[in-house]
Amino acid sequence: RKILTQHGFVDKDLLTYPYEERGLQFGDGIYEVIRIYHGDYYLLTEHVERLFRSAAAIKLTVPYNKEQVYHKLAELLEINDVKGDAKVYLQITRGSAARDHVFPDTEPNFYAYVQDLPRPLTELKNGVSVITQEDERWQNCYIKSLNLLPNILAKQEAKEQNCFEAILHRKEKVTECSSSNVYIVKDGKIYTHPETNNILHGCVRSKVKTLAQNLNIPLIEEAFTLEDLQTADEVFLTSSNAEVMPIISIDHKQVQDGKPGTKTISLQKAYEQDAK
Ligand code: PDD
Prior knowledge:
Order of helices and strands: EEHEEHHEEHEHEEEEHEHEEEH
Low-confidence stretches: none
Shape: globular
Mean pLDDT: 98
Number of domains: 2
Number of helices: 8
CATH topology of the largest domain: D-amino Acid Aminotransferase, Chain A, domain 2
Bound molecules: N-(5'-phosphopyridoxyl)-D-alanine
CATH architecture of the largest domain: Alpha-Beta Barrel
CATH class of the largest domain: Alpha Beta
Distance between the termini: 25 Å
């Protein structure tokens, strides 16, 4: 497989970076994870727009304009002859330079690679278990930054408790999960945290807003609490990897009857139809 870099395509075993690389030393960069179904990008515009928003937020200049990014990402799939379900990981850092907190005078490092990614069909059908964790991140979670230490610690804790994800909360208010957005259904309405600086503005989240509207399910962008979570009729999460994923247990306590909810299932079906 070939990796896309700012210096053209490079064989995956031949790509190396200097030890003084700002992504490695400072986490000084941004990334995107983009879904591919049947060899085609899904929600690509949303991802590219967010990439440029993240870059601007950390004063990083993307080495390409948007048209060039679209063109290069298309090339990446062609060169690797991608036909099935996959994902692209794309990362831009502030470059390689002698370690100094101040921005260097070098070009950014850009790379993107593609990996096969089957759909999580068993989990989508049966639902997953999650835990809750205090959200210990900074105040700019809308930036898709490489600094993921709080996220990986939360996810690892979930894994150690045999769970799929960790729902994060700032005091009583639920924000999102370690690598996905989270929703409850209560009395026929969907609630999710508004698009503030405290959550990542998920591409699947924005698609779910449209899908809910088409299905005539009201979606209210209002933060809900840990208590609301406990009494919810349904709970689900979304991401490019996990799609629309039912949550059937929280902190080892069943959500309602412990089965994926009906509204969640309708959204799942609508998503699947849209992604086809
Ligand atoms: N994570 N919230 C966080 C903190 C995330 O890291 C992600 C995505 C999402 C969902 O965003 P989207 O719908 O655009 O995938 C929400 C990616 C998949 C990752 O880090 O691997």
